[in-house]
Amino acid sequence: MTSNDVDHQLTTTARGTTAAASAEPRWLDAEQQRLWRAYLDGTVRFIESLGRDHEERSDVSLNEYELLVRLSESPDHTLRMSALADGLARSRSRVTHTVARMEARGLVRRSASTGDRRGVNCEMTTEGYRVLVASAPAHVAAVRRFMVDVLTPEQFRALGEAMAAVAEACKADRDS
């Protein structure tokens, strides 16, 4: 049995088990399936490569680096924890655990929000800023090596615009 036979069988089985009351799913055609799988494969390999590069060349993980970048772009290098989680598209509990590890290393500190005692702020420390500045050249070099220099400027622009549209659709769906 070839992989095409398996795909056909899976598609047929999936279609055969569709509840009578529900509408027929809009299956991906062969070209859409090929592009979808290429996207998944490329995304996983890109994130793994970037993460591995951070482990080898930096004092922070990729997630920690992105958190420091968000803080560096905010006034006073401070954000509410909830805004940080939203900006990173991560769960609040995951960001809380990451911040706790970073706080133990002196990269960030948490404090009560001045306007709302229930809120918690996260502030980048001087050490966090030093680590961010030291990590940035290797991070940018890896992004170039694994993506920017692999794509034409048109492909890179199209990818960025496409993923911005996907992010907006996902945010709208989450917020509805």
UniProtKB/TrEMBL annotation:
<dbReference type="InterPro" id="IPR000835">
    <property type="entry name" value="HTH_MarR-typ"/>
</dbReference>
<dbReference type="Pfam" id="PF01047">
    <property type="entry name" value="MarR"/>
</dbReference>
<protein>
    <submittedName>
        <fullName>MarR family transcriptional regulator</fullName>
    </submittedName>
</protein>
<dbReference type="InterPro" id="IPR036388">
    <property type="entry name" value="WH-like_DNA-bd_sf"/>
</dbReference>
<feature type="region of interest" description="Disordered">
    <location>
        <begin position="1"/>
        <end position="24"/>
    </location>
</feature>
<dbReference type="GO" id="GO:0003700">
    <property type="term" value="F:DNA-binding transcription factor activity"/>
</dbReference>
<dbReference type="GO" id="GO:0006950">
    <property type="term" value="P:response to stress"/>
</dbReference>
<dbReference type="InterPro" id="IPR036390">
    <property type="entry name" value="WH_DNA-bd_sf"/>
</dbReference>
<feature type="compositionally biased region" description="Low complexity">
    <location>
        <begin position="11"/>
        <end position="23"/>
    </location>
</feature>
<dbReference type="InterPro" id="IPR039422">
    <property type="entry name" value="MarR/SlyA-like"/>
</dbReference>
<feature type="domain" description="HTH marR-type">
    <location>
        <begin position="3"/>
        <end position="168"/>
    </location>
</feature>
